[in-house]
Amino acid sequence: MMEKPILYYWGPCPTCAIATKYADEHGIELDLRDVEQEAPYYELLALGGDANKIPYFYDGETLVEGVDAVVEHLKTIA
Question: Which residue ranges make up each domain of the chain?
Answer without folding.
Answer: 6-77
